Every structure is written in structure tokens, then in C-alpha cells.
Amino acid sequence: MQKVSDIIKQRVERIKLEKENQTTTLSFSSFPSFSDVDMAENKRKVEIKYFKRLSNLPKKINNCTFEKAIVKSDKEKKIKVMLEKYCKNFETALENGIGLYFYGVRGTGKTFYSLCVYNELCKNYRVYRTSLMNIYKRIKKTWKMQDQDEEDVLNDLLKADLIILDDLGKEYLSQEWGKEKLFDIFNMLYEKEKCLIISTTLDPEQMSEYLSINGSDDVLDRLKENCKGLAFNWESRRKEVKKEIFEEIFG
């Protein structure tokens, strides 16, 4: 006959084994399956491609890389290094909604360097390059559509990891609609801590006037809070570039 002590020992071992099996089952169930991981990865790749199609990109976008930058001053070198660091540490910027604000006269490389950032980050992130005017046009276009509305346009801004607004300040903004819409958009991006890169020819004083709504500087203050200002304060080299192209064509 089996001893009582042996029976008790067997029961204890069985209970212990059942608990171990239960723990193992719970641990494995807490991890996503490979199919879930693959689906999430595929979804992200599709979204990255979507924003590439949605973005306003120049024909020579592939020429805009940090490696191809022709640096002609210490000031420009300093900005280039800062932009490379921004790309390298973009995860931290993404977590905190930190962006950049380029300002300077035309032809100093603001658009080129914003496209360098675009090319560097669009490989792994949802980067949306557009303009305020293009956003307004998309919104107005939805007024005549039944399958799309203004929320769809704004949701694209919210889904993007980084928004690049090119040449801000050249648009005419009516006080009644444009200014209010500008405040709504910037306020939404601020509250959602979205990363934003702005390039403009307006100096800080002109930008203050442009973004002022009913005498309030709320938009500008929020822009300064989340975006690091970079002054492209050297002479335009646009004529120089065109001169090289003319020489290449005509000799």
C-alpha cells in the first residue's frame, strides 16, 4: 500500500507542475504572434509609401542628400551637423514633438536641407512634405466631395511622424478663414506634439506679424517652444547654381 506521505508528495508535485505550465502559457500568450508583427510592419511600410505619394517632392529629390551638400561656410557646416544629429536622434525628437524652423533669404539652401532631412528619415518614418497652401487646397477640394471631408486631410497630418511645411509665409491668409484655419492647424499639431519642420523667407519679426491672429502671438509662441530656429544668414547662391548649369549647356 502507498504511504500517505508519498501520496501527499505526489499531489504537491502535480500542483507545482500545473502552476508552472499555467505560467508558461500566460507568458507565451503575452507576446504577439509572428503574423501580428508582420502585419504591423507591412502596415507601416504601406503608410510610408502613402506619404511619399502624398508629399510634394521636386524632380531632383534624389540629389538632396547630406553627402551631396556643398558647404561653403562655417555657419553652413554647423547647421548641416545639427541637421544630421536631428536625424540621428529623431526617436527622441519624435517622443517630444521637437521640430526645426529654417529662415533666411531665397537661395540659401533651406529647401535643399529640408529635403536632405526628408530623404534621411522617409526610409523608416512617415514623412509628409507639403505646404500650408496645399493643405488649404486639399481642404477646399473636399467641399465638393462626398467620400472625403476636412477631417481626412487633418488626419493625414496627425498620422505623419514628421511634417515639413515648405516656404511658409508666401500664402495670402484672409482674416476670416485663412487665419482661423492656420490657428486650428498649428494648435492641433502643438497639442498632439507633432514634429514640424518649417522653412520660410520671413525673418522673426515678419513671421510674428504673419502668424498673429487678432493681435495674439499664440501660434508663434508655440512654434518657438517646440522648434529650434536655424538662421540661413548667408548670401543666396541661386544665381551661382544657374551659372554653372548655363556653362554646362552652352560652354
UniProtKB/TrEMBL annotation:
Example GO biological process: DNA replication
Keyword Chloroplast tagged: no
Family annotation (Pfam families): IstB_IS21 (PF01695)
UniProt keyword list: ATP-binding, Nucleotide-binding
Keyword ATP-binding: yes
Record-linked InterPro entries: IstB_ATP-bd, P-loop_NTPase
GO molecular function: ATP binding
Domain IstB-like ATP-binding: 52-243
Name of the protein described by the UniProt record: ATP-binding protein
Species of provenance: Leptotrichia rugosa
